[in-house]
Write a structure and sequence with these properties.
Number of helices: 12
Radius of gyration: 29 Å
Shape: flat
Largest sheet: 12 strands, mixed
Strand content: 25-35%
Length: 495
């Protein structure tokens, strides 16, 4: 039987901790087989010499069948021999307990280093040889080790987390030497550091500093990032680097001070002339599109860099950039309009397709819908969003919305959306008078009454100069408050 590979951890791992996550195949007559499997593992694995604690969770997929996930934490600072013994005993327990009723998979962790359980003791010993080369050094917080896949589709992985930022490069050297000795010539290797969690590792944390031999999100083969590491070290010696991604042919740096970006870029390009050097700083951050092998080059940010210099004004707290998007965070409505006006005057050009100015968005689903975002509370919020060609029109609408906050205006070629808030239905005539001269035809209009909940939000569309109500969705009901507000808006607009 082949022992399954470790899945992403959800629990924090501390240095000096040995954790084993196991998915077993066990025969169980228990109705809730997954839960019963966890309970058995907790009871029996806790009795192994060197085991500190056992935790787990079970899934009862079918009656008398399921899966169990068990985390075994052993005593700290096990010797190499004791770690090998515990690994073999856990593996033997899995093998001997296997059956058709319950499915288990797993991995182990030794002093913060997680590694998958393989199908044979000899395979685990090869993994342990890699782990033993890294653990026991107080500079390392922990990491992950995965063997190359039997199918050959994966080349293995060795990832190290350092305790202090100053040890990042030495951590990388340790990983590189370990990978060379392992014989995993195509292994993905990395060293990283995070300021947010100095004493734990969580798989979903994005590190502040990272050196790796491959570029995340691409299918590129692994390479040697030595020139990029040299560039990183030289920039760090001259400026305060707060975030960095150092990979073959690609160097991303964030500096504490925006004024240092030009000098840092020159230093990095001199040290790594063939690399894509992308630098930002202060309130300006550059984000790379995810899930796209065709990552942007440094030159692709030239236009948004120009616009960021315009946007970095008093009152602006953040400027987020991709090659096509400029997102500026400003809380004060008057500051929103002034900043958006300055950006429009700068004549944004290709490849920029979207400019947004307003308070920070909290859209968890990434859709950033105007009605959901700005009608969600009663704070003094105004946002203006638009394509370069329509940003001016969006500002015009936003200016008229100043008295009906929270509000937003989004104006694009394929989508026009406006959201506004009225204190009560008595404001309808004033609202219509304000926005009628500037509202583009085709605009979706979302109007709500303050303190009346989402049931008071109308959904209207301006078509050929007339406001029409959007049809109800399946199962949706139009309450009296919404009905009355829609009727009042249509009567005031359509006459």
């Amino acid at each position: 039987m082949l022992w399954g590979r470790r899945r992403t951890r959800s629990a924090a791992l501390t240095a000096g901790t040995l954790t084993t996550v196991i998915l077993l195949t066990g025969c169980s007559a228990h109705l809730d087989a997954g839960t019963a499997g966890v309970e058995r593992a907790q009871r029996e694995l806790s009795a192994l010499d060197g085991v500190q604690s056992v935790n787990g969770s079970g899934a009862n997929n079918l009656p008398f069948a399921g899966e169990a996930i068990v985390t075994v934490t052993a005593d700290d600072d096990l010797s190499d021999a004791d770690l090998r013994r515990v690994t073999h005993e856990v593996g033997r327990w899995i093998h001997d307990t296997s059956g058709p009723g319950t499915t288990y998979r797993g991995s182990m962790e030794a002093d913060g280093f997680a590694f998958s359980l393989e199908g044979r003791a000899s395979e685990d010993d090869r993994l342990l040889a890699v782990v033993d080369r890294l653990r026991g050094d107080d500079r390392w917080l922990g990491g992950d080790v995965d063997a190359p896949s039997a199918s050959g589709t994966g080349g293995g992985r060795i990832a190290l987390t350092v305790r202090d930022a100053d040890d990042l490069v030495s951590g990388w050297e340790a990983v590189r030497r370990t990978a060379a000795s392992s014989g995993w010539h195509t292994a993905s290797t990395s060293a990283s550091w995070s300021s947010a969690q100095p004493d734990v590792i969580r798989s979903y944390d994005v590190p502040d500093l990272r050196i790796a031999n491959d570029v995340a999100g691409t299918d590129d083969t692994v390479g040697d990032p030595t020139p990029e590491i040299t560039a990183y070290e030289r920039v760090r010696a001259a400026h305060d680097v707060t975030r960095a991604s150092v990979t073959p042919g690609r160097l991303l740096l964030h500096l504490a001070d925006l004024d240092d970006v030009g000098d840092a870029t020159a230093i990095a390009r001199q040290a790594a002339p063939d690399a894509q050097v992308i630098v930002d700083g202060g309130i300006v951050t550059k984000d790379e599109p995810r899930g796209d092998d065709d990552l942007p080059d440094a030159d692709d940010y030239a236009e948004v860099d120009r616009l960021a210099a315009v946007a970095a004004r008093p009152g602006v707290t953040a400027v987020s950039l991709t090659p096509t998007v400029v997102d500026v965070t400003v809380d004060d409505p008057d500051g929103v309009l002034a900043t958006a006006t300055a950006l429009a005057a700068a004549a944004p050009a290709d490849p920029v397709t979207s400019i947004r100015v307003g308070p920070q968005t909290d859209a968890a689903d990434g859709n950033d819908d105007a009605a959901d975002r700005d009608a969600a509370d009663d704070t003094d919020r105004l946002s203006v969003n638009g394509s370069p060609a329509m940003l001016g029109a969006s500002i015009q609408v936003g200016t008229k919305l100043r008295g009906f906050l929270p509000a937003s205006s989004e104006q694009f070629d394929t989508n026009q959306s406006v959201a506004a808030t009225l204190s009560d239905a008595g404001q309808v005539p004033a609202f219509v008078e304000a926005v009628r001269p500037v509202l583009p035809d085709g605009t979706g209009l979302y109007v709500r009454l303050a303190d009346r909940g989402t049931d008071s939000t109308t959904e209207l569309t301006l078509r050929d100069g007339k406001l029409t109500a959007e049809p109800l969705r399946d199962g949706e009901e139009r309450g009296a408050v919404r009905t009355d507000l829609e009727r009042a808006l249509q009567d005031a607009w359509n006459g």
